[in-house]
Design goal:
This is YceI family protein. The protein is mainly beta and 176 residues long. It is 5% helix and 57% strand. The mean pLDDT is 93.
């Protein structure tokens, strides 16, 4: 079995959510670690996937909003410093892989199936093999206790409950 780790310099963990029913706020996390253990990364043979995202590293390019998102109203980053994912099963269908596992967010664990796309492999200028993987999926934030909101005078709410998560990851073989 080989362990592959995400290259944080060439990877991104991002999200978007409806704001005031008329626009989308985008953001991401600066600190994260993804790890895949498998016999063959191209086929995910006997694979296990683990992901860890540091909640305090949220960045929406607005300091006061980021502080609010780290607070008890949302991530409660002091009490829940990370979001994790641990795979249980992985199946292949064409170029995509269905990965079912446990997501822990805000102290709540739920089973979720995520579709991953394997984008291929290449050699970097230093002779290292790199692999690309991406995914987009929806999380209902309220299922994880992230229920803060405000009703709008014009109807609707300030923050949508569906959050679109987007990951674009580059992996290399783990070296000690």
């Amino acid at each position: 079995m080989t362990v592959y780790v995400s290259d944080q310099t060439h990877s991104e963990v991002a999200f978007q959510v409806k704001h005031m029913m008329v626009s989308k706020v985008r953001g991401g996390f600066e600190n994260f670690h993804f790890e895949i253990e498998t016999e063959d990364l191209e086929t995910f043979k006997d694979a296990s996937i683990y992901a860890e995202i540091q909640t305090e590293s949220i960045n929406t390019k607005n300091t006061s909003r980021d502080e609010h998102l780290r607070s008890e109203d949302f991530f409660n980053a002091e009490k829940n410093p990370k979001i994790t994912f641990q795979s249980k099963t992985i199946s292949k269908s064409g170029d995509t892989f269905s990965v079912t596992g446990d997501v822990t967010l805000n102290g709540v664990t739920k089973e979720k199936t995520i579709e991953l796309e394997y984008n291929g492999k290449a050699m970097d200028p230093w002779g290292n093999e790199v692999h690309g993987i991406q995914s987009e999926f929806i999380i209902n934030r309220e299922e994880f206790g992230l229920t803060w909101n405000q009703k709008l005078e014009t109807g609707g709410v300030m923050v949508g409950k569906e959050v679109k998560a987007m990951v674009e990851l580059e992996f290399t073989e783990k070296t000690e």
